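Troubleshooting entry. Yesterday's outputs looked truncated, so today I'm pasting the complete records for two proteins to confirm everything comes through intact. If either block looks cut off, that's the bug. Protein one:
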Amino acid sequence: METMKIIEITEMSQQVLDAFTRLLPQLSSSAEPPTWEDLADMIQSKASIVLVAVDPEEIGNIFGTLTLVVFRIPTGIRAWIEDVIVDEAARGKGIGELLVKAALERAKKEGAKTVDLTSRPSREAANRLYRRCGFELRQTNIYRFTIN
């Protein structure tokens, strides 16, 4: 895994669809796998930056992903890291940290002053990763409205 590279996905492919179909259930058992059209739309969106971890020596295999969402609001440019997933078979090898650091660097390049993310307390390894990367726990209320 020493040759692992983080790249941005800019075009939809069968490799991308296969990777998300394999990886997403490792993050959420309730989320439906994205379709080709869903992923193509996300990749083409100006707000979504899809980063993946690949090993150039293992052509065709995506070991992890995250989506960096960057958008402008009246108070400036905001960035969120969403859906960080490292393949179960490749965990503990620094892939998550490589993905997060690449996302932070990209957010800075895009003009964001802060980057936010959320993580369930039960995801202990993920929470350790985020603290190790410099994230600080905020005291805030997060509200969700479910649209039926």
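Protein two, checking that the full record survives here as well:
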Amino acid sequence: MIDRQSDDFFMNEALRQARRAYTADEVPVGAVIVHEGQIIARAFNQVELLKDATAHAEMLALTQAQSAIGDWRLNGCSLFVTKEPCPMCAGAIVHTRIDRVIFGLADPKAGGAGSAMNILQFPTLNHHSAITSGVMEQECRSLIQTFFAQKRASKQNN
């Protein structure tokens, strides 16, 4: 039986998006936003495709979710993302008032959700998001490691 309300279920959907990024030769990060048990936004990194440094999966998903809700405030929403949000994305998550952020792979060098810094729960900000980390971590890690191993191998062959 598939529990369509579980963190694993929604992270699997984020991983589907990450695989789309991988296929498009983008860093394989995927995100989905859930409201009242339903996915209202799906996105993957499109930095290279759009030639836009802000086209991270989270940012694109936030924009879609705002359209779906009809408001910039995303109260009652959860964001599932395969890799810990960067500081830019974490700032946008706080501003849009996402209730909960669930991620797979931590980013100790640049994570904005508790690894390098914790923007999502910064004491002086007007909103704090609950954080759940390590959901399907191995699957998320494997996809990113494979992507970058292939990138390094292709550089060595050129």
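Both blocks look complete. Sanity check on protein two: The chain is about 40% helix and 20% strand.
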